[in-house]
Amino acid sequence: MTYWVKVVFVDNQELLVKDAIRHTISEDMEVLEVDTAREVTIIPMKQIKYISCDATVFAKKSAPPAPR
Fold it and tell me: What confidence score (pLDDT) does residue 62 get?
């Protein structure tokens, strides 16, 4: 599944990735990584004002039946 990720930088420039397959923040909270099928973009968190993404990324998949 691909989705969009929008990054707004502290200088108000914007980066819109329309075909992201994954976005993650590093364990040390230093960088944001946005992956597509063609490239990986790594952005220092200090340069980011905010991040937004397609809400369908967080949609719940159907849960397995409850045990009896």
Answer: 59
Pairwise CA distance, residues 17 & 5, whole Å: 5
List the structure tokens of 18: 């329309």
How far, in Å, CA of 6 to CA of 17, rounded? 6
Quickly count: other Cβ atoms within 10 Å of residue 20's Cβ. 21
Could you give the C-alpha distances from 10 to 44, 49, 56, in angstroms and in order?
Answer: 11, 5, 26
Q: Are 29 and 44 in contact (CB under 8 A)?
A: no
pTM: 0.78
